Amino acid sequence: MIFDSPPAVIGHRGLGAGTLPGPDGVPVAENTLESMLAAVRAGASWVEIDVTRTADDALVLRHDPTTPDGAFIVGRTAEETGLPRLEEIFDGLPPGVAVDVDVKTVLEDAVDAPSRRTGALLAPILRREARRRPLLVTSFDPSLLTFLKDEVPDVPLGLLTWLRFPLWHGVPAAAGLGFQAVAVHTASCGFDHPDTRLRPLDQVVDMAHKAGLTFMAWCPTAENAPSYAAAGVDAMVVNDVPGVLAAVR
């Protein structure tokens, strides 16, 4: 089992996407150490971070493939991006804080030398961190997850699905590839979506559980989080940590 006492509440990009006021009222930006620590103070079970690689083979935190000025991150050095490095985030988090590493692979992974690809850069960091905290790696890229399955066999892996890679494909794909979790955006598994009108979400979650998968949903709101909890999801990646906690506890 990846999560204790489901449904686990995971802080999306830390406290939440964008720039939000922290528990002490001070604004914090997504994918920063301050946002991760704010999520923990707000009661999140885990924090989720977005990771991608730079031109000098560093791993930095950023959801989008470009910097705010529109330059591709993979074409700039870590220093030029000004983005926090993954190692800095891990070193700043207290031991034991659980982290979902959402990996954004890049087009260059298709042609660069194996040692430069995102998975190869990430594996040694995961091996170190697995001694300090619970970890989960999620990605839309099954090739990255398949690589990590051999490199870090003790770290659970989750396949992300959304819209054009629908729920019907995501659940059997994750199970067939030997991953431990499937993570689905609410736009793909919400209660008004065709997939879940044809098959209620609780039935999909039950099927995932029978296949040995942990089922995650992102990003339920405080208003609809109880419905996801009632459907049996194991974790919710959320932008409103306090609101969702109050709604489901």
How would you portray this structure in words?
By secondary structure, the chain is α/β, with parallel strands linked by helices. Helices cover 35% and strands 20% of the residues. It has helices at 33-42, 78-81, 86-92, 118-129, 142-151, 167-176, 186-189, 194-198, 201-210, 225-230, 241-248, and strands spanning 8-11, 19-21, 27-29, 46-53, 59-61, 98-103, 135-139, 157-161, 181-185, 214-218, 235-238. A hairpin with a 5-residue loop joins strand 2 (19-21) and strand 3 (27-29). Helix 4 (118-129) crosses helix 5 (142-151). The radius of gyration is 17 Å and the shape is globular. The mean pLDDT is 95.
Query: How many beta-strand runs?
Result: 11
Count of DSSP H/I helices: 11
Could you give the order of the helices and strands?
A: EEEHEEHHEHEHEHEHHHEHEH
Quote the beta fraction.
Answer: 15-25%
Global shape: globular
Integer average pLDDT? 95
Strand order, main sheet: write it out. Answer: 1-4-6-7-8-9-10-11
Please identify the structural class as seen in this structure.
Answer: alpha/beta
Uncertain runs: none
Return Rg in Å: 17 Å
The profile of the biggest β sheet is: 8 strands, parallel, barrel
**Helical proportion, percent range:** 25-40%
Distance between the termini: 20 Å
